[in-house]
Design a protein that fits this description.
Length: 234
């Protein structure tokens, strides 16, 4: 598996390289955006970690350009949480977004999660450092009875909670901002406050906890919103 690291800060690029190599990945580093685009158009590798602000061509243009030709998984790195909101709105086609500062361990975990989600799983299971994400087939949605079945256990939800969970569950690992969730939760283009969304998420989490308190499903991403990921609690 080859991970391309497009990052103009040499220290940060090398840190990511070390952690990824430690986990059995091969890496290629690019410090310049234009050079990266040229090379990645020819050979995108298995996944790209792409910084937003780069000399030469910026990360957003690189992502857009690559998407015209390739479905290679792309994780955007950005220094500003607000940027992620804007990028989500532009729908440039990245698979995930990570906000700086980040821990290299988190980046490795996200790389693996995106590879799993996009069906590009590493051959050998060198996955000791991160919690294993359980299979999604354990989730069965039933709109008729307004419930979700998790590992054969029934969890009754309201219609709004069911939609909220369904929207996030469709794209595990993807971060949703509150406006995106709001559009998915209501049919009638209703506008509600962020606090209303947060309160629905809170209730949904509590209900999911009653089914399986050892696992968490909905995670807050500071300054942005929420995402679905199946993680065993530590
Ligand atoms: Ca940069």
């Amino acid at each position: 598996m080859n991970i391309s690291i497009v990052e103009d800060e040499p220290k940060l690029a090398n840190l990511l390289k070390d952690y990824l190599q430690n986990d059995g990945f091969n890496t290629s580093i690019y410090h310049d955006g234009s050079e990266a685009l040229d090379s990645l158009m020819k050979n995108p590798g298995d996944l790209i970690l792409l910084d937003l602000m780069l000399p030469g061509t910026d990360g957003m243009s690189i992502c857009r350009e690559l998407r015209k030709h390739s479905n290679v998984p792309i994780i955007m790195l950005t220094a500003k949480a607000q940027e992620i909101d804007r990028l989500l709105g532009l729908e440039i086609g990245a698979d995930d977004y990570i906000c700086k500062p980040f821990s290299p361990r988190e980046v490795v975990a996200r790389v693996k999660a995106v590879l799993r989600r996009t069906g590009t799983t590493p051959q050998n299971g060198t996955d000791a450092s991160t919690p294993e994400t359980a299979s999604d087939s354990s989730f069965v949605f039933d709109e008729g009875t307004a419930s979700v079945r998790i590992n054969e256990q029934v969890c009754p939800l309201t219609a709004v909670e069911l939609r909220l969970l369904g929207a996030m569950h469709e794209r595990p690992g993807q971060i949703f901002n509150r406006a995106q969730l709001m559009r998915r939760m209501y049919d009638d283009n209703r506008i509600v406050s962020d606090r209303t969304i947060d309160s629905h998420v809170k209730k949904l989490r509590q209900k999911l906890e009653t089914v399986d308190e050892a696992t968490s499903y909905i995670h807050s991403v500071y300054g942005i919103g929420y995402k679905f990921e199946i993680l065993e609690n530590e």
